[in-house]
C-alpha cells in the first residue's frame, strides 16, 4: 500500500484530534483578526478566538454560506494582504457574481500535496501518463489536478475539453494510463472509442471522475467500457478545489483529509448526525491562509463512514453524495440554480414568469438543459422570424448568466402546469436514461 504522506494519512485518532484542535485555534484567530465579516459574526455570537480550546468547540463557531462569499465579492473574505496572493480561481455565483477564492504560495503547496495523496492512493506514480481532460482557467479542476500530477512525478497531459477524437488519439499516442474528466464526458469518450474500434489500443488503468453526480451503474459502465478502475473525486472551490476527498482502491467511501478539513455532517436543526445517518456536509478549513473558511454549508448530502478502511488510512470517510440540501443543479460540471434562470426570465418582456427546467442526457451521454418558457399573449405576431428572435434572445441571455448552452422551448401561455405550493420547476430525466 503506497502513501504520499503516511504520517498524516495513518495518524492515530488522538494525535489527529490534537492536531485539529491546534489548527482550529489558529484558524479562528486568523479569521477574527483579519476578516471583518467573521469578526462581526463572532461578536454576534458573543465569542472570541480564545473560547475555542479544542476541535470539540467547533459548534460554537458561526456557519458560512455561498451567499457570504458573493456578498463579500471579490476579496472581502481574504485573510492575507493582496501581495501574498499568488493565484485566484472563481466559480459561477447564483446571481451572476462569481465566487472568488484566493491562494497563497503555501496554499498551492498544500493543494498539490492533497492531490498527490489522492493520486498515490489510487495507485498512480511517476511511471504514469495522466490526461487532464477538463477546463483549465478559473475552474479549479484543471490546475488543481495538474499540480498534483506533477507533484507525484507523473507526465501531465493538459488536454483540456472538447475535440474527442483528438483526445483519444493523444491517449493512444502518448500511452496515457490515467484520465480526469466528468463522468458524462468519459461515457462519451468510451462510446466514441468503441465506434472507432480502438478500446484495445488504450492503456488506461485509472479514471478520476467528479464535478457532477454519478451512479454506481455509471461506474460499472465506465469500468467495463474503458477497462479501468473509476474513482470518485470530491472538492469545491470554496474549500480548495478538487482534493478535499477521494476514493481509495477499496472504492468504499471517500477519504476526507481531516488534518486539513474539520468534518461535520449536520441534520436540518444543525445537530451532528450519528454515523451512517445522512445529513449536510459542513467543512472547516484548518490550514488555508488566503481564504480560511469556517463551517461552510456545502449543501451536499452525505453519510459519515467512521469505521476503519482496509487501505490502512485512518481518516474519516464520507459516502458518495446522496443529493443536495438546496435546489442547485450540476449540468456538465457547472453549478446552475433555478433562481438564476428565474432572474433571466423576469427580464424578458415577451415571456411570462412561468418556466420549467428539463434535464436530459443526449446520445453522446452529455447533459442537455432545456428551459420551457411561456410566451405572453401579445408577444406572438404570427411571424415565425419574430418567434425565432425571442427564442434566440432568451437562449443568449441564459448562456451569458449560466455559462452553458441552453435550449429554449417557447410554449403557449397557460401550458406549464400551476400547482399549489412549490411548483415542479425542475424535471431531471438524466438517471432515467
Automatic annotation (TrEMBL):
<feature type="domain" description="AMP-dependent synthetase/ligase">
    <location>
        <begin position="80"/>
        <end position="283"/>
    </location>
</feature>
<protein>
    <submittedName>
        <fullName>Phenylacetate--CoA ligase</fullName>
    </submittedName>
</protein>
<dbReference type="GO" id="GO:0000166">
    <property type="term" value="F:nucleotide binding"/>
</dbReference>
<dbReference type="InterPro" id="IPR028154">
    <property type="entry name" value="AMP-dep_Lig_C"/>
</dbReference>
<keyword id="KW-0596">Phosphopantetheine</keyword>
<keyword id="KW-0436">Ligase</keyword>
<dbReference type="GO" id="GO:0047475">
    <property type="term" value="F:phenylacetate-CoA ligase activity"/>
</dbReference>
<dbReference type="GO" id="GO:0010124">
    <property type="term" value="P:phenylacetate catabolic process"/>
</dbReference>
<feature type="domain" description="AMP-dependent ligase C-terminal">
    <location>
        <begin position="333"/>
        <end position="430"/>
    </location>
</feature>
<dbReference type="InterPro" id="IPR042099">
    <property type="entry name" value="ANL_N_sf"/>
</dbReference>
<comment type="subunit">
    <text>Monomer.</text>
</comment>
<dbReference type="InterPro" id="IPR045851">
    <property type="entry name" value="AMP-bd_C_sf"/>
</dbReference>
<keyword id="KW-0597">Phosphoprotein</keyword>
<dbReference type="InterPro" id="IPR011880">
    <property type="entry name" value="PA_CoA_ligase"/>
</dbReference>
<dbReference type="InterPro" id="IPR000873">
    <property type="entry name" value="AMP-dep_synth/lig_dom"/>
</dbReference>
<comment type="pathway">
    <text>Aromatic compound metabolism.</text>
</comment>
<dbReference type="Pfam" id="PF14535">
    <property type="entry name" value="AMP-binding_C_2"/>
</dbReference>
<dbReference type="Pfam" id="PF00501">
    <property type="entry name" value="AMP-binding"/>
</dbReference>
<keyword id="KW-0547">Nucleotide-binding</keyword>
<dbReference type="InterPro" id="IPR051414">
    <property type="entry name" value="Adenylate-forming_Reductase"/>
</dbReference>
Amino acid at each position: 500500500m503506497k502513501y504520499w504522506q503516511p504520517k498524516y494519512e495513518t495518524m492515530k485518532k488522538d494525535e489527529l484530534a490534537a492536531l485539529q484542535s491546534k489548527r482550529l485555534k489558529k484558524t479562528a484567530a486568523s479569521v477574527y483578526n483579519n476578516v471583518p465579516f467573521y469578526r462581526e459574526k463572532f461578536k454576534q455570537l458573543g465569542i472570541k478566538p480564545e473560547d475555542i480550546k479544542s476541535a470539540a468547540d467547533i459548534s460554537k463557531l458561526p456557519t458560512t454560506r455561498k451567499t457570504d462569499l458573493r456578498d463579500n465579492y471579490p476579496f472581502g473574505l481574504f485573510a492575507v494582504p493582496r501581495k501574498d496572493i499568488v493565484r485566484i480561481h472563481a466559480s459561477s455565483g447564483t446571481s451572476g457574481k462569481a465566487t472568488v477564492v484566493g491562494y497563497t504560495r503555501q496554499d498551492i503547496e498544500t493543494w498539490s500535496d492533497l492531490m498527490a495523496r489522492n493520486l498515490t492512493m489510487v495507485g498512480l506514480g511517476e511511471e504514469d501518463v495522466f490526461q487532464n481532460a477538463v477546463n483549465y482557467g478559473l475552474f479549479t479542476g484543471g490546475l488543481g489536478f495538474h499540480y498534483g500530477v506533477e507533484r507525484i512525478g507523473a507526465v501531465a497531459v493538459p488536454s483540456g475539453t472538447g475535440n474527442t477524437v483528438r483526445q483519444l488519439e493523444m491517449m493512444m499516442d502518448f500511452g496515457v494510463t490515467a484520465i480526469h474528466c466528468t463522468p458524462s464526458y468519459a461515457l462519451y469518450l468510451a462510446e466514441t472509442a468503441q465506434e472507432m474500434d480502438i478500446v484495445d489500443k488504450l492503456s488506461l488503468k485509472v479514471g478520476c471522475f467528479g464535478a457532477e453526480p454519478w451512479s454506481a451503474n455509471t461506474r460499472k459502465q465506465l469500468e467495463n467500457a474503458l477497462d479501468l478502475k473509476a474513482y470518485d473525486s470530491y472538492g469545491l472551490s470554496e474549500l480548495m478545489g478538487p482534493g478535499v476527498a477521494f476514493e481509495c482502491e477499496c472504492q468504499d467511501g471517500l477519504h476526507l483529509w481531516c488534518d486539513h478539513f474539520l468534518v461535520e455532517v449536520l441534520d436540518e436543526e444543525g445537530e451532528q448526525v450519528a454515523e451512517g445517518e445522512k445529513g449536510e456536509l459542513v467543512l472547516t478549513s484548518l490550514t488555508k491562509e488566503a481564504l480560511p473558511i469556517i463551517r461552510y454549508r456545502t449543501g451536499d448530502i452525505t453519510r459519515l463512514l467512521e469505521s476503519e478502511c482496509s487501505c490502512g488510512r485512518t481518516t474519516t470517510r464520507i459516502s458518495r453524495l446522496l443529493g443536495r440540501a438546496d435546489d442547485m443543479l450540476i449540468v456538465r460540471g457547472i453549478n446552475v440554480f433555478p433562481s438564476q434562470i428565474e432572474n433571466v426570465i423576469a427580464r424578458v418582456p415577451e415571456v411570462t414568469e412561468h418556466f420549467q427546467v428539463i434535464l436530459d442526457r443526449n446520445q453522446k451521454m452529455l447533459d442537455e438543459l432545456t428551459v420551457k418558457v411561456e410566451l405572453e399573449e401579445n408577444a406572438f405576431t404570427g411571424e415565425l422570424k419574430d418567434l425565432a428572435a425571442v427564442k434566440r434572445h432568451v437562449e443568449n441571455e441564459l448562456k451569458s448568466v449560466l455559462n452553458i448552452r441552453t435550449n429554449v422551448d417557447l410554449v403557449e401561455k397557460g401550458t406549464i402546469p400551476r400547482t399549489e405550493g412549490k411548483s415542479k420547476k425542475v424535471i431531471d430525466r438524466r438517471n432515467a436514461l
